[in-house]
Every structure is written in C-alpha cells, then in structure tokens.
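We close this part of the discussion by returning to an individual protein. In the encoding step, the backbone of a single protein was reduced to a row of integers, each denoting a local shape. The sequence in question and its structure tokens are set out directly beneath this paragraph.
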Amino acid sequence: MPHFDTETGAPPRLLIVIAATLAVALAAGVAVFGLLTGSEGKPGEPGQGPLPLVPVPAPQAGAAECATLLGVLPGELTSNGEKLAKRELAEPAPPATAAWGTDDPIVLRCGLDQPREMTRTAQLRVINSVQWLPVAAEGTTTWFLADRPVYVALTVPDSAGTGPLQEISDVIAGALPSAPLRFSDD
C-alpha cells in the first residue's frame, strides 16, 4: 500500500512521476505504431485509406451547382505527368468535397462562404476561361472560384504544378454558368 501525504492526501511524488512516465511512454508507443502500420494498406505506406478532412463552413454545399459539379468531377487528375486517383473521404466527410492524390492531396470544396480576400483590388487569374482568386499559404495555394454562382475552393500543393487547376477549370467551364463577380468590400 503506497504511503500518502497525511496533510494533503496526495500520493508520493515518486508515484506521480512513475505514472506520468508510463503515460508518455504509452502515448509514444501508440504514435509509433500508427506511423509504422498506416491506416489501411501496407505497413508504413502513407496516404492509404480514407482521407480525413476537417469540415469548414459551406452554407451552399447543398446547392444544385455543387451537386452538378461533384457529378462531373474526374476520377483522376494529372499532376506533373503523374495520375492522381480520386480519394475516398473518411466519415464524417465534409459535404460537397472531393480529393485526389495520396501524400499531399488536392482538395476541392464547393459551396463555401465568400473569401474575405475577394475584394475589388484582388488579383484574379483566368485559367481556361474561369476566373480564380489565388490565396497562397505555406506549401499550398487555395484557388477560389470567383465567377460562378457558388464559391469553390481548390487547394493544390505547390509540388502539383498547374495541371490539376487547368483540368478542374475545364470541368467548371463546362458544368457551371458564369456569374457576375461579387466582392466582400461591397
């Protein structure tokens, strides 16, 4: 029976240190096991199994335009000559979302709120007759669709090149009608 401090009723400091050490060792063991075995597929092979994505506000995810777009998205995208297969999304999957690739996936989300960067002075880019607002972050660029009835975001790792953006632009040009630009500073 361990000896408890009679004044506070707390267990001895040594017992607390041992318990904390065991907890840290167990957490480290679980983390190493998870890294070595992966989620599905072969041990140690990254990017296997359903892709977990964090939900983001998408108030128009149920819009007919999102359903139309999701219905015509390709089963694979070409990135630097490599074919990236469409990924299964882990449940609960965010609505109106698709992804391609394994290590650094390309993620499309439809029905988002208007990006705050969409101002009258924003530098838009036209890719295959579709206007996009690029927002760069470390290692990726998120391209916000600017000239269609719903906002779509395509997050592309910097290593992917321009092929996926061009392919998705072609799909959008054929599936969604253009719409007047809307600005967050109106």
User: Anything to note?
Assistant: The two ends are 72 Å apart (CA to CA).
